[in-house]
Amino acid sequence: QVQLVESGGGLVQAGGSLRLSCAASGHTVSIYAMAWFRQAPGKEREFVAAINWSGMGTYYADFVKGRFTISRDNAKNTVDLQMNSLKPEDTAVYYCAATTTVYSGTYYYSSVYKYWGQGTQVTVSS
User: Fold this and answer.
1) How confident is the model at residue 118 (pLDDT cuts 50, 70, 90)?
2) What single-letter DSSP state applies at residue 100?
3) Which residue has the higher pLDDT, 55 or 41?
4) Within 10 Å of residue 126's Cβ, how many Cβ atoms?
């Protein structure tokens, strides 16, 4: 089993920055990829970014490319999401997720991820 705990959410003005962090515990050696998803009120959960075990493979949703950066520290069992140039439409609950198995092209699907955190609220005011 793997446990995930997110931190770093909050309220920020449009154009500002936030850094989310996800700490993994438990059987972390089994984790291959980690990701961030988000869910806004009344909307489906959507993919934001993912990173593989080496940190060399990163994947982003089109709407965050150039603004968000995902990174991981395997020694600390953490994955971070640096969010810059935030927009009001980025307001959502952000979830950290982890999987032990993922195939090329499937990083974007929530069904791939077995472990999920509780989520952290990000609110961007205009």
Assistant:
1) very high
2) S
3) 41
4) 9
Backbone angles phi, psi at 62, to 5 degrees: -55, -35
Comparing 100 with 14, the larger pLDDT belongs to 14
Which two three-digit tokens encode residue 78? Answer: 């953490």
Residue 57's beta-bridge partner residues? Answer: none
pLDDT digits (tens, 9 = 90+) for 69-105: 999 998 999 999 999 999 999 999 999 999 998 887 8
Q: Residue 97: left if φ>0, alpha if ψ -120 to 50, beta else—which one?
A: beta
CA 126 vs CA 11, 12, 15, 81, 119: distances in Å: 11, 9, 9, 21, 23
User: Quick check: 116 and 97 in contact, CB under 8 A?
Assistant: yes
The amino acid at 104: S
Residue length, the chain? 126
